[in-house]
Amino acid sequence: MVLTRREFLTSIPLILLLLDRRLAGAGEESRRKGSYHVDAGVFFGLFAFNIDGSIDEQIDRAARRYRVVVAGQGSQVANRLESAGILRDGRFLPTATDIFLNLRGRESRTTIAYDHDRGLIDYHHVSQTFLLGRRREVHDLVRPNADQPVDDLLTTALNYAEGAIGTDAEGSLRTYVVRRTRPENESPDDVQLGGYRAEIVPLVISIAPEAAGGRDVGRLDLTRLSSWARRGSPLRITFGPDRRAESIQADLVFGTSVRITVQSTS
After folding, report:
1. How far is 35 from 234, CA to CA, in rounded Å?
2. Backbone phi, then psi, for 161, in 5-degree steps?
3. CA 183 to chain CA centroid, nearest Å
4. Are residues 236 and 258 in contact, defined by beta-carbon separation less than 8 angstroms?
5. What predicted TM-score, i.e. pTM, was given to this entire model?
6. Are 167 and 175 in contact, with CB atoms under 8 Å apart?
7. 121-157 residue pLDDT tens
């Protein structure tokens, strides 16, 4: 999944929503609602954005399907993310992911369709860079290896909560996601001549107890996923005693910062 600056703001609440084993609780059908708040600043606060949004998550175990809708808005910003999929062989598998965000008039849209029977992923992405409004566009088909399960951020969280994705000897959660190809040193306003392709890359989240308080902390290196990432400054997720993420923070390039909090409402 491509994580541009705009998509980053849209997608992060998914991680916060579901990294909790209680969501895998008993019952054939479950529904959970939550809310989230985002504070983001670009260029040391020159541009400031706030999002207040809702999260609606449904799991129907009898039908072996799930659906999550994340939607929010604020001053000059609105977002919506919908992810739907199936349960198969103990794993949550995405079948459709749809991400939309409007940030100061710059629109971004990513749609991904996963055909697990045929082993194909249909990836489409159109966005504008934040400052200069340059267009990035991808329309591509990719085929994962047979032993390479591909997640989106939501199924990564669901599968972690269910224990379908464990941690390795180093305490890291490992899976794969789809993203837009990009040069290693791409800056936030660079556009690649000749266009882009889609590719499958590893997603690795290191999870370890924090020395102070003993709470679990997840760290995700965003340099594989976003041109706004700052080397040596991973995304940080702090979990409560019940394994539910309480907060997330990211310090990015050009004095950009993102702080997110999530609350369960039902």
Report:
1. 24
2. -60, -35
3. 21
4. no
5. 0.83
6. no
7. 999 999 999 889 999 999 999 999 988 889 998 888 7
Alpha-helix residue ranges (DSSP H) falling in 99-205: 153-162
- Quick one: 41 exposed, middle or buried, by C-beta within 10 A (0-12, 13-18, 19+)? middle
The whole-angstrom separation of Cα 97 and Cα 99 is: 7
Measured in Å, how far apart are the chain's first and last C-alpha atoms? Answer: 29
Task: List CB contacts of 89: < 8 A, sequence separation 6 or more.
Answer: none
Amino acid at the residue 209: P
- For the stretch 148-191, pLDDT in tens is 889 998 888 788 777 788 778 888 889 999 999 988 778 888 99
Residue 121's nearest CA partner among 142, 139, 92 is 142
User: Is residue 220 within 8 Å of 237, Cβ to Cβ?
Assistant: yes
Residue 250's identity, in one-letter code, is A
Which H helix or E strand runs over 14? helix 5-18
Nearest to 121, CA basis, from 25, 266, 2: 2
Q: Give the span between the Cα atoms of 171 and 196, in whole angstroms.
A: 33
Tokens coding 45: 């606060």
CA atoms within 13 A on the CB side of 233: 16
Q: How far apart are CA 223 and CA 218, in angstroms?
A: 16
Judge whether 53 and 36 are in contact, CB under 8 Å: yes
* Structure-block tokens of residue 92: 């949550």
